[in-house]
Structure formats: C-alpha cells, structure tokens
Amino acid sequence: MNIVMYIIYGVCTLYIIYWLVGSIKRKEKHEIVMAVGAWFFISLCFESFGSLSRLEYWQIESRSYLKIIATVFLVSAGLIFLVSSQTMRRKGKPEKGWEETTELVETGIFGLVRHPIYLSSLFAIVGVCLHKISLVSIILTPLGGVLFFLAAWYEDAYNEEKFGAVYIEYRKKTKLFVPFIY
Questions:
Q1: pTM of this structure
Q2: How far lies 148's CA from each of 13, 57, 96, 151, in Å?
Q3: What percent of the chain has a predicted confidence (pLDDT) above 70?
C-alpha cells in the first residue's frame, strides 16, 4: 500500500472510532458491534484491494472464477444496500439521517428480510475475501460475519423495545437474512 492508502485507511479508522464512541455513549449494542464489524470490513478491503493497482491482479488466472463470484457478491451487496437505505429513508420517516426511523418499515426488501443492510455487509465481506484469499481475509471474514449476525440480533431486541408488539409480529412474518429460510 502506498501512503495515500494508509491515509485513507487512517481516516476510515478514525471515523469508525468516532462512530464506536458515540454508540458506546448511547449504549446501542447493535451499533457497537456493527462499528467493530465495519472496521474489520475496512481492514479487509485495504488488505485485499491494496493490490488492485498492480497489473498482475487483473490478469486471468486459474482462480479467476473466484473473482467473478466475488464480483457478484460485491455488486449484490451494493444493490441490497442502496435499495434498503432508500426504502428506510422513504418509508421509515427518519428523525435524523436515514437509519433512525420513526415507523417500522415492512415493505419492499424489508418484507422479505428484517436486516437487509447487515445482509449486504455479509455479502460485501465475503466478496472482498474471495477477491484475494489470504491469511488475514480468512481470519477477518468469519469474525466480521459473526459481528454482523450479532448486530442483527441486538438490533432485533432494540427494535422490539422501540416498536413493541408490531415488531414482534413482523419478526414472525420475516426472516433475519435469507427470505423464507433464515
């Protein structure tokens, strides 16, 4: 990695620390776990994509099918994130930003899964890992995945407290991550 990459990584890390400290002060478990998971993801991205500017990364190799699968995961992650965040912004009537909704969103992608943004995070971390398999990615990917699962479970408890019986009914109708399965 060159110096610019280190600076960008440092800025991302500082932002995540800021996010983490705010989440700790507000005692929001799902945000605390998500911030740590996001740092794992950012670290994995910089470890994996530090070689993107080198020519050999783009040459066809025997494992090129992994890069195709990785790209499918990454594009899917981006699309799921965009659709989810826009749906939350339009239907959730947020007080601030786009995530602090005042109404439970049960339509669109949220009619299929309760946590599509965490699902997109899982897809992204798997996609990044598949782009460049290394010891670091093999360690960070499962740890990040566990953190995103924990964040979803903590957010279920948070939403149950926030929305009450309506959220309990919503939980019965939808799955955590995978429509109709889990």
A1: 0.78
A2: 18, 29, 23, 5
A3: 89
